[in-house]
Amino acid sequence: MKASVFVGTSLDGFIARADGALDFLPSGGGEPHGYNEFMASVDAMVIGRKTYETVLAFDAWPYGDKPVFVLSTHPLAPAPVEAVVEHMSGSPADIVSRLVARGVKHVYVDGGITIQRFLQAGLIQRLIVTRVPVLIGTGTPLFGAVPRDIALRHIATRQYASGLVQSEYEVVA
After folding, report:
1. Fewer CB near the last or first residue (10 Å), C or N of the chain?
2. pLDDT-based confidence at 33, cuts 50/70/90?
3. Domain edges within the chain
4. Where are the alpha helices (DSSP H) in the chain?
């Protein structure tokens, strides 16, 4: 199974403010930067509970009928009626094993801790990081401490009129 990350960060590497707010990220109605094409390539999403709770506060459920597996050891808030949400817990390797058994071929991994845990476990193959031209100073970092170097191979970098800079990497096994 392939696992990919598609994430936006402030230029100083934060995916959310300290209070979880995402107000520094461009709204979905801005210039296209590959998100829709990326979403069309994945079978399912794996996100953490905090990301799930943040998304629940959006005006509309952003994932359509794409299956979303929310990782948490705690009970989840109810999902919107149109959402396909399943609660899971376990190690990243266990989660991947269960998803493979269900026929998932390409999963989108999102949420700070979830991305970090899957990277540390060697289960991410592709990273697409879009840097927003703003410094927010503090917040939730995209990358935390790692027990060893994680080598990446640069695939491409794209720049957009709005100032967004998007880099794509392959994780070197």
Report:
1. C
2. confident
3. 2-171
4. 35-41, 49-56, 92-101, 112-120
- For residue 141, list its beta bridge partners: 14
pLDDT of residue 105: 97
Distance CA 9, CA 17 (A): 10
CB 92 within 8 A of CB 123: yes
pLDDT tens track for 103-157: 999 999 999 999 999 999 999 999 999 999 999 999 999 998 888 899 999 999 9
pTM of the model: 0.93
DSSP state of 19: T
CATH topology of domain 2-171: Dihydrofolate Reductase, subunit A (3.40.430)
- What tokens does 59 get? 């005006």
Residue 13 tokens, joined: 């590497």
The 3-state secondary structure of 2-13, one letter per residue? EEEEEEEEECCC
